[in-house]
């Protein structure tokens, strides 16, 4: 029982960066922009968040920096694809390569200029991003551990997902945004400012990805700067969008499931099932591939990719 | 609404000019419409009607000229501006979000705060009853028929309080009954004081609905005439710019014609398992035009696809001159030298590759016959150039993507490509849909020419008048069954109409159909 409980907690912790990445990508795709730069935006966010946290020892500043860096990275993508109508796939891939490279470059530079040749977050901020202990609530047996003992990021992630869901599904602006993603021509003819809606959503999405990156740098890597700290999480996020059928709330379950796969190896007793660790490392990617296959057969119109995803919009196109 | 403004000018355009690169779409166009008036905008394909209307709705911005709305000179820079001025446009290709409900589409982009679904529904119903519209506000667009979608578009415009309504070929995809319904709505709106501009190719509709007609030719205004002073012939002449005849030729058949294709007991299922064709029997003779009439979706598509080998046949036989085609793939059929050409309904989806030029589209049909590993583009280029010359296709070059061409020219490319392959059998589905009168006659002439060459032509059509005057025989489909095969020279529109609805399923027609199968 306690193994299952521990697995769940570990799955939540491992799934949180995926949640940020997925919600960020959903915000992009809902306005018709398939952004393959999630890995890059997360990396830039990771670098900015970690470095600001390292220098200032302030978790709020670190979060803001990660968000701002994600927005800045997304701005490159937005200007190229929305304004200059560059190919979305190529731009996204380029952003990934650029983002990962930039983060590693800055990280390497900082490492070389530090006294100890290593970068470790200061104590104060480490304490702030450690798992919380909420009086009373965290002490409830089982539930306390299950629900009320995570670090601050986890709660921010879930709140972000719910807010994004509410914004997209329940508000008038959200309706307009979804229309832009489905049929920008129709949205434009209805008097919606298509370009503005696209910019806003792509930038917010980038910011959310940036926070996810900061999570992997500051929590998954244990508060020490490691190159390539995002390590493919961005890519899994892109696939998770399909798994979550473009719903930020379903992204919560999806990221939990994928978080579970990625930590499974530590919780399956070796004495019972003996499989090499490499198998577990491979698992999330195999499942991703399977999810892509299964979901491509799915026929429901509503739970599908926004129709204009991947194509840029130009009003005067004939 | 605009009741008090009746008889004042809603739109006044002066000297409008718009160019796309080197192409002049509109030049020196004048147009005016009063409130409480329906103006028909008439012109051939590519004469700049849609471009002009798109400038009023804010999709394009004119290069020169002035637009006055309600007497005020305005500059319309975006659809938002147009909506603000009370202009609503219903585009030929509907601007609706498929996965959203009618309701969501109607409120889309409006400035007011989100209102409760209940109040919204009440408001929609209020407008609906005022103008005699019917729509289920919660139905998703992808579940709707074309006519329902159009109703949503109209509601969208009315909901925004538009007093100027522009409709771009609204009847192109409607059945005659649906068209009648639409016209009733438009007349009602006119009574309420709306100004309406309607683009249509169907001259009888122009005469039926409009008060005045504005004619465009090659992007310039030719003039305006009052509908009551004009007839179809004069309209056509104004539009085309030279005298024309509205008679459709019907060359005589050869007396000793033999069947080109014999179909026996053909059964085809639709992908969803429902019967598409049931026990279809008929012959297609060489050198004849066999018209196929029927309400949309009565099995026309299945019939064409069965003969071309594009769909699986459940039961029955299709024999082409002693050779059984059922069981053969498209490639087998080709390799036997049987040339079946098919001009599908969906020209740019199924017929041609929209992003390729004429040369490559012609090549698609012929590359399999070429030898060696490299593609020879010279022969198709020559063919394409020949087509341009002989059919008068208007295109900047034979390499321009075909999607850039106007509807009539796209059809000429498709038909031309199929004809140049010298078919034995030519299947055409709605070949003149969306084409202006001049292009339509070109298509009729091409079909007759093929008939004279001895080609067996199957013509699936929707305009009974045309079918009656061009075909030799008419096969009527009803719910996937042949409800009759009649002699087009002797039958009447009423008889075919009754067969279409299956009311007249009697012995008489059975005899006729067995007659034909002897």
TrEMBL record, chain A:
TM segment ranges: 6-24, 60-80, 92-111, 147-168, 202-227, 233-266, 278-297
InterPro entries (UniProt xref): ABC_transp_permease
Intracellular or extracellular location(s): Cell membrane
Primary localisation category: membrane
Record has Repressor as a keyword: no
Topological type in the membrane: Multi-pass membrane protein
Keywords of the record: Cell membrane, Membrane, Transmembrane, Transmembrane helix
Protein name: ABC transporter permease
